[in-house]
Amino acid sequence: MKLFVMAGRNVFRHTRRSVITALAISVGLMAMIAMDTLINGADKQGEKNIVDFETGQLEIFAKGYYREEGAFPLDTVIKQPDSLAAIIRKIPGVKTATGRLKFPARLNNGEDELPVMGIGIDRANEGSVFATPRAVIVGKFLAATDEIVIGAELAGDLKVKVDDVLTVLVRDRNGTYNAFDLSVRGLLSTGHPLLDRNAVLMDLETAQRLMALLGQITELCVTTADDPKRIAAIKAEILHRIGPAYEVYAWDELNAAIFRIMGMKRLFHFLVALAVLIIAAIGIINTMLMAVMERVPEIGTLKALGFSNRAIVMMFLYEGGLIGAIGSFVGTSVGLIISIYLSTVGLDFSRKLGNADFNMPMKMVFRGEINPATVLLVFAFGVAISLLVTLIPVRRAAKLEPADALRHV
Amino acid sequence: MIETIDLQKDYKVGKMLYPALHGINLKILDCEFTALAGPSGSGKTTLLNIIGCLDIPTEGEVLLNGKATTRLTAREKSELRKKEIGFIFQTFNLIPVLTAYENVEIPLALLNLPREEKEKRVVSMLKEVGLGDYLKRRPNEMSGGQQQRVAIARSLVKDPKLVLADEPTANLDSATAREILILMKDLNEKFQTTFVFSTHDRLVMEYARRLVNLRDGRIESEQSK
């Protein structure tokens, strides 16, 4: 008679109790996996939107610009973008680069006016660094100098459609008020709230004329052909080649605040998961404590038959481990099914949450991303915690003198 | 041979000490069929437990075939019980999730025996106690007498030198108790195993070849037949 067989039969000695305990573990682990998938997906979507629509993998500014970026310091711009881009494109690992000119503006439809961020783009190179041309959902991407593309949500706010004409008002580099009437060529849906709600994209030359910054840009955005892990090395090489008049930042450095939020979110996720697991662990302790207490005389019998303390501990460990493994298997399986749904269909929060943006560059439709390592870890964790909490009541019972165990009522 | 030397056992309840055995000196020879008789609280079970290495005396020594057992480690005692001592309990103490076959097989699972040998021994022992057709029955599918027979088979299957039985007939009706006693006596003779059992049942005392009467933790009298 193998210990494992005895443990297996003991699991089904009180089927309902074992099922409830396994279920507690299942629910805990299922929640952990589904939450991880959702948060992982949200993080990945946020990261992708930053790189695809806002920064590229690296951004180059004139020295001092980035520190005051929020105030749009138009005196600190890149004055020879073409020669700079030529140097950058030659650096090994760099795929290409494109310039952008960002500035504060107001967008007027004749009745209402909204503050926006104007972004002048290099039409020829924009698509090789950013995904904006592919994010047009109505109309087309910029093809001429007198056109703009705006976010579909901004268009909704201003009640405009393709081919309508909007006035872009700015104070140019010299402090002079300036306004251009530009027709809406297309509407964007990127998933990045900055572009969908607050940005107006126009031809770079138009933006330069509007801002009195002819031939100048605020930033040069770079994409690399290499492994993303090499970005730091490429950044160092760029800095080495272009000298101290410029500064270079990787996309994650530019969004440090967002990554701090992501970190806090992960910590919160971990704490919630820990609380769920503690509740499940209490369930196992309770079950195993009852199993041990009601079987103390049986432990005495087994000891009388020659079972060692170790063999008795092992038998109960198999039992607790089996309940944990069944619970963990069911939990991770259901968690995985939910995760597959989340990663393929996703969750649409747009109706419930409206335009809330959570300070994250992502859509209100959350798509999860399964992390196989998490699934395996969670399964192992479920079994390990079951074994660990089983040890607590069993070790004491196994140490009883056989006569004391046999006398136990 | 079993020898107890000045065995004393006190139980501590709170701050109070309750003496259970007062200097028991007893010798039991190989193959004896001995009953420890006495009223409840006389120390029968305590004495059996100490002889069987299930409990520790407060003072004194137990020699099993000349070997002192009271200072053995838990592991050494466990080894001794595994190989040399069989137990029969008042409440049968079968493992409820196991069949009769599996219950009898438990002591052999701890010994390194080939599977065929284990199977042969278990089946033969269950036949010996009259349960050859009950191999797959679980304890809750058997009568008290049948359960006690399984327990007897379990105690003897590893071919121990000594079987200790604590009130083996206390939970049985008199007819079944008689059957069990006859069976134990037959097995004692057949396997030349030493049987020591505790009882306060007159019937059991009738079957014992040697009767040791205990009262208040002391040997009151002894008689051999």
Polypeptide structure, described:
- The complex is a heterodimer of chains A (409) and B (225).
- By secondary structure, chain A is α+β, with helices and mostly antiparallel strands.
- Helices cover 54% and strands 19% of the residues of chain A.
- Chain A has two domains: 3-49 and 258-407, no CATH class; 64-243, no CATH class.
- Chain A has 15 helices and twelve strands.
- The radius of gyration of chain A is 31 Å and the shape is elongated.
- The model of chain B has no long low-confidence stretch (mean pLDDT 92).
- Chain B has 225 residues and is an alpha/beta fold.
- Chain B is globular, with a radius of gyration of 17 Å.
- Chain B has a single domain, classed as P-loop containing nucleotide triphosphate hydrolases (Rossmann fold), CATH 3.40.50.
- The two termini of chain B are 19 Å apart.
- At the A-B interface, helix 1, helix 11 and helix 15 of A face helix 2 and helix 3 of B.
Q: Detail the poorly predicted runs of chain B.
A: none
- Strand content of the residues of chain B, in percent? 25-35%
Structural class of chain B: alpha/beta
Topology-level CATH name of chain B: Rossmann fold
Number of domains of chain A: 2
Strand order of the largest sheet of chain B: 6-7-8-3-9-10
Per DSSP E runs of 2 or more residues, the count of β-strands of chain B stands at 10
Determine the mean pLDDT of chain B. 92
Shape of chain B: globular
What is the approximate shape of chain A?
Answer: elongated
- In the CATH scheme, the class of chain B would be Alpha Beta
Q: Percent range for helical residues of chain B?
A: 25-40%
Number of continuous helical runs of chain B: 7
- SS field, number of helical segments of chain A: 15
Largest interface: A-B, 24 and 27 residues
For the record, the CATH architecture of chain B stands as: 3-Layer(aba) Sandwich
The first-to-last residue Cα distance of chain A is 26 Å
Helix content of chain A: 40-55%
Strand content of chain A: 15-25%
Largest sheet geometry of chain A: 6 strands, mixed, barrel
